[in-house]
Amino acid sequence: MTQYDEKVAKRKEELKQEELAKKVHAIEIRSGRIQTWYKDGRVVSEFPRDKRKKTIVEYRNVGKQL
Question: How many whole angstroms from its chain centre is CA 52?
Fold first, then answer.
């Protein structure tokens, strides 16, 4: 079974990254904007009042551990 050790370790790392992508780090609500910060560095900005603006997804602190 040692032939699968690398594949198992790689899959565990993928699952860890997917888990970080789901966890919310902070929510910031300001006039006309809602920002949701996730543990993997993704920031989602939503504009519920202004329908002309689309939801923006940014990646900050990529490669750094929060």
Answer: 24
